[in-house]
Give the backbone structure.
Amino acid sequence: MNDITIAELLPHQAPMLLLDKLLDYQGSRVRCETRVGARHELLLDEQGRLPAWVGLELMAQTIAAWAGMRGRERGEPVRIGMLLGSRQYQSQVPSFEAGERLVIEAECLLEDGGMASFECRILRGDLPCAEARLSTYLPSDEELSTLLG
């Protein structure tokens, strides 16, 4: 995984590329990492902390990294996906501290016709501090063109 940069896998660009790197990808599972800091400057509070609600976007970008790896395996370019919703986002912390290393994990539970459901969590060290189930949609190029008008 070390030779693949996160920017190669996601359609995001700075300042909204929130992940630092891909740690692992195996079939239905993916793990990414970020260290809270300058990369997140638009979203940080006055104390330099990242609000816990940003965890949803960290999870969504981790799912995008998974989709980027799957596309790479098929020789396809990076595509824009959509976060349709989340269920039961729970965070045990109000924010993530400046300098803190976060590992974000996602596992695809179900995939059908571009729709997918993922179980996600954010770890501080070895301990989970946030979790949710996210629903996503990966539209075809034609659908995306229609949606973006």
In short: DSSP finds two helices and eight strands in the chain. The CA atoms of residues 26 and 85 lie 24 Å apart. Residues 55-73 form the longest helix (19 residues). The mean pLDDT is 94.
